[in-house]
Structure formats: C-alpha cells, structure tokens
C-alpha cells in the first residue's frame, strides 16, 4: 500500500538533509498517487524516483505545466527573438533590420510566437543595453508594454552579460571575462563578469559602465586583472537566447520583477 510521504520523510530524514524540495501529496487512491514537487529552483522529477515510485513520476509529469519565456533583443542592427520552455522546446530567430526595426518588430513578434498565444508565456525578458540608443528604446518600450498588458514579470538583461553568456563555453568557472563594446566620443562600454558555476549564471565583478580607454586601463590595473577584452560584434540579435537563459535563472531564484522596474541602459542618460 502507498505510504504517506510525511511518514516516509520522517523515517528517512537522512535522505532529505540537503534537499530543497517539498512534495505535496494531493491524492492517494488505488495504489496511485498524484503529487506536486516544489523546489527553490527548477522542479526535479528525478528525485521522486528515489523516494517514491516510478508511477508517481508519471503522474507528476502529466501534471507539470511548462514555463515558457520570451526574449527580445533590439540593441543592435539585428533583431533577435527567442522563446523556450527550458526543457523540450527552444527557438531563436534573427532579422537584419537596421533602421526598419520599428516598422517590423510587432509583425515579427506576432509571427514568431505562433502557434502559441500570448497567454502561454509566464515571463518576458529584454536586452536593456548598452547598444543603439533608438533600437534599445524601441525594444524596451515593446517589452514593457507587453509585460504590462499581460501582467507578466519583465527581466532586463545586460547586452554585455548576454554576449558573455553566449561565449561562456570558452571560459572557466571564476575566470574574469572583460567584455567591451564601442561607444561614442572615443569611449567604450565595458563590464567584467565571471561564471559562478558551470552552466549556471554570471557573477558581476564590475557592472556595465562607460569609460575612456585610459580609465579602463587604470580600472583593470586596480583590480589586478590582465584579461584580454571580449569584443562584441555589431550584430547581437543571436544572443537573444542568452538573454532568455539569464532571465530564467532569475526566475528559478524566485524573482518576479515588475515591468516598471526595468529601464534601458544608455550609458549617457538619466536612465543609467
């Protein structure tokens, strides 16, 4: 006969000492159980196999609702859109629109998400800059409007962080990654990140800012860093998938930012 999970956990508490998961038994009937597993991060159904039965995995999987996210990247001449349920489905597409972004963004968004509908998404992510002033503003307005109308969390992700994450396989854990993007007036945007765990997320050593080359040289010297800069290309739409992945990491951590909290980073305005 199927035992109560609470009793099982009490009798085998040594197995749960380091577990962040809680299992809520919804129904036990005719030797079958329906349950929900809850964790601080992404639900892990494999853990149930060790504690209950294969049949429980079947029922839990059938009950699971996938988390779909949508990302917009408009900070360069290349529009990038990405959607995923972070399990079985992931799709990214780019368009080289340059100055035609405002004319086609909404059309391509509507076409891109099909056959899904807007109500299928649980959150939206947007590249917040740095990058092109006009393109950044267009994407930010679109993302904020969608999040407001759909009542969804909106994650603003640095364009520099997204590019670093796109290149993450080329770097070791805790290795400083100095990323650089050309700005105006002889300056450039820059930041320093590092991977905190394999395939996890990024730590910020130095947040996105803009400086003259000599100022950056001094900053790197003060931080005792000698890393070569990772230079961003002119087209960044292909990193929309990285925007989405970094946002999903925050989603897993329980963050649900309101759309009004997300502002663009221009590096030379009151929004920075």
Structural class by secondary-structure content: alpha/beta
SSE order: HEEHHEEEHEHEHEEEHEH
Measured as a percent range, the helix fraction is 25-40%
Shape: globular
Q: Report the biggest beta sheet as strand number plus sense, adding barrel if it closes.
A: 5 strands, mixed
Strand order of the largest sheet: 5-4-3-6-7
Counting structural domains, the number is: 2
Report the portion of residues in β strands: 25-35%
CATH topology of the largest domain: Nucleotidyltransferase, domain 5
Terminal Cα span: 61 Å
Low-pLDDT residue spans: 1-63
Number of helices: 8
Radius of gyration: 22 Å
Average pLDDT reading: 80
From the coordinates shown, what is the CATH architecture of the largest domain? 2-Layer Sandwich
Quick gist of this model?
The chain is of the alpha/beta class and about 270 residues long. About 30% of the residues lie in helices and about 25% in strands. It has two domains: about 5-65, no CATH class; about 70-260, Nucleotidyltransferase, domain 5 (2-Layer Sandwich).
Description:
By secondary structure, the protein is an alpha/beta fold. The chain has helices at residues 5-11, 46-51, 54-63, 101-113, 133-150, 159-166, 213-222, 240-252, and strands at residues 22-29, 32-38, 69-73, 78-84, 90-96, 123-127, 154-157, 177-182, 188-195, 202-211, 230-231. The strands form 3 sheets. The chain has a 5-stranded mixed sheet, sandwiched between helices. Strand 4 (78-84) and strand 5 form a beta hairpin. The chain starts with a helix and ends in a 20-residue tail after the last helix. Mean pLDDT is 80; it is low at 1-63.
